[in-house]
Design a protein that fits this description.
471 residues; alpha/beta; Spore Coat Polysaccharide Biosynthesis Protein SpsA, Chain A; TIM Barrel; 8-stranded parallel beta barrel; 6-stranded mixed sheet; globular
Length: 471
């Protein structure tokens, strides 16, 4: 990604007159006022010329200044009412800049202060994503999250009767189709929006006619009431007690899913996944994947079954991109170790993902050949569970050994459920690779068991009704 030359300011609107949760923007959350977290994330991104907090409250202003934000002026009472819009905020801001003869930036990044959790450097990633795709004619950008249930399945109440959200239709049987049969819908989440200053001056609206979607897959909470505040405390506590952030790779996504999960840490593939995705030519398909995954770590596997042929395939795959990790199985199909091949490739500084590992002994056999290289060791935890063994215990022992005797990273592979993410974190994994469907399921983390139970019962009921079952 080339260095961004445009001038960019962060705008954090924080009025004082909230009704649901009084003075919510400065509510104490884990010993810090709520607004602190957004200011901190903006500063840590190192992307902004200025960070403005726009507030009507001297009290809020003092707190925001303490944590490093600028307060250019205090918003008027009129501009701080419940009815005030983002458009009103920016109209006033441009009036102030014009009056003070201050040159506005090229872009504003709008950050909602009621979202204390922005994971994986999402601000920097969002800005880079916008400028990487802006040539396609986009004027502005909004971050969005996929809705668990598409909006087509939502309802409203008219004259005390449930009605479709799309039109005045009271036949709710039309909403009982499987979730997967509806077009995906998304909700703006407020994590990061980008506004073009010239476009705003032209239209007097924050969002132009062509708005870029920045799809975000992270757990977040937008604080509006005490329950939201409690949930945020839980998430932040969990985040702070984690010693490190596990990297999440996406396992075997199709082209659209690569775009959907573009902000994730990397991608992994194997010959079986290529076959499933309909690849006809292995290298041509790999090149298509490389284009879509851009600069992210990408693991692609050899499929030959002898040292000479595997070596040649590894060289070809490695030459496709500098982001490639060549996947080498820990053994050939006859059970013979690939140790000699691993040593040869490692000595040539080819990045490896050594795969299909099931035992600590397999790692011990090759550790001296790889100890000074930053390879990935993929331990197939899911398949270890499949054969009745405790994969968490095996992985933890293997990972501790790898970290003690090498520079390599351990990867939790062959996931079977969303909980694998938690198990991998507890087992000291550096990386986990998960199929897209499993990643989507992690959005439910934090849901109460009671709510999950109710959703399950409703699912059974709706499916039986949809199938017109009778007893």
């Amino acid at each position: 990604m080339k260095k961004i030359k445009e001038r960019i300011w962060a705008i954090i609107p924080a009025r004082s007159g909230s009704k649901g949760l009084k003075e919510k923007n400065i509510k104490i959350l884990n010993n810090k006022p709520l607004i602190y977290y957004t200011i901190k994330d903006a500063k840590n991104s190192n992307m902004f010329e200025k960070i403005f907090v726009l507030t009507d409250s001297p009290k809020f202003a003092k707190i925001a200044k303490k944590y490093g934000a600028e307060i250019p002026y205090l918003r008027s009472k009129e501009n701080s009412k419940d009815s005030a819009t983002d458009n009103d905020i920016y109209i006033d801001l441009f009036k102030f800049l014009k009056c003070k003869k201050i040159s506005p930036p090229n872009y504003f990044v709008h950050l909602c202060p009621t979202l204390p959790i922005r994971s994986n450097n999402i601000i920097k990633k969002g800005i880079n994503y916008f400028f990487s795709n802006k040539k396609k004619g986009y004027e502005t950008m909004r971050s969005v999250s996929e809705m668990t249930n598409p909006s087509y399945k939502t309802v409203r109440i008219i004259n005390k009767k449930l009605c479709s959200i799309l039109k005045k239709d009271f036949d709710l049987n039309k909403l009982n189709g499987p979730r997967q049969s509806y077009e995906k819908t998304y909700v703006p989440n407020g994590l990061i929006d980008i506004i073009d200053a010239k476009c705003f001056l032209k239209r007097n609206t924050t969002h132009g006619k062509k708005v870029m979607p920045f799809i975000v897959n992270q757990v977040y909470v937008d604080i509006h009431n005490k329950n939201d505040l409690s949930y945020a405390k839980y998430l932040l506590k969990k985040k702070m007690t984690n010693k490190k952030k596990i990297k999440i790779y996406v396992d075997g996504p199709n082209i659209e899913e690569i775009k959907e999960f573009s902000e994730f840490d990397g991608f992994t593939f194997n010959p079986s996944l290529f076959k499933k995705l309909g690849a006809k030519d292995y290298i041509d398909f790999a090149k298509k994947i490389i284009i879509e995954t851009k600069n992210k770590p990408l693991s692609i596997e050899v499929f030959a079954d002898d040292e000479s042929s595997c070596y040649k395939q590894a060289k070809v795959i490695n030459d496709l991109s500098e982001n490639i990790f060549v996947k080498i199985p820990i053994t050939y199909t006859n059970g013979q170790s690939t140790k000699a091949l691993i040593k040869k490739l490692s000595n040539e500084d080819i990045k490896l993902n050594i795969t299909a590992i099931f035992t600590l002994e397999q790692i011990e056999e090759i550790i001296n050949e790889i100890k000074n290289s930053k390879h990935i060791l993929s331990i197939f935890s899911g398949r270890i569970f499949d054969i009745g063994l405790d994969a968490s215990e095996i992985f933890k022992s293997a990972s501790d050994f790898v970290h003690k005797y090498s520079k390599c990273e351990t990867l939790w592979a062959s996931c079977r459920m969303a909980y694998d993410l938690i198990a991998a974190e507890k087992s000291n994994a550096d990386i986990i690779t998960m199929a897209p469907d499993l990643i989507r399921k992690t959005k439910k983390f934090g849901m109460s068991p009671e709510k999950c139970s109710l959703e399950t019962v409703k699912g059974f009921f709706n499916d039986a009704k949809d199938a017109n079952f009778k007893i």
